[in-house]
Amino acid sequence: MISPCEMTIYFTSRMRYQTTLVLDILENINEGFDISDPDTLIENSKYQEGIKQRLKICIKRHTEIQTTGKTLVNGSQAYTFLMSIAGVIIGVSIIFFLFSFEGSFEKRYPRLVTLVISAGLTFTHIIIAGQLVENIATKFFEILQAVDWHYWNQQNRNILIIFMQNTQQVFQINFLDDMAVNYQLGISIAQSVYSMISVLRSLKNLDDS
To answer: pTM for this one?
Structure first.
């Protein structure tokens, strides 16, 4: 049960690292060129060619990262979904057991605490990993919007526009087509668990009374 979660965390970490390298190139796209006299840059063929090559490298790496990410997510979607269903079933079973158990938990506290901490940390790490991927993916468009393109030639401006269009669709880790792993999913699951516990607690209080 833990293995799919660890694989997801590892995959998202590698993806964020590769994305950070591309973002660093974009943020320092003018590095290595003398831009002290901006008025001459538009006619500087060496500068324009350098910008063009860096933009192409970024587009290529961005496409490779997106393609690899989608391939891995689509390939493991069914397996991850089944493991998620199994996790939900186990979690619900544990909650029902805790509220229906008539004995004493005195000797079982270490096991229960260990189980709750492990499940909570795993769930939290998965949600954070998915949200961080989504956050860093949005940085592409934000950085491209802030790029000083005023001294680029028309060809480089066209490449920039194409790049911006490609980055408008943010990459997300999806279990289903409409279920992305992010903070919103984490809040929804936490609310569902809280509602279930509240209902079970109310039912138990009615039985006790």
So the answer is: 0.73
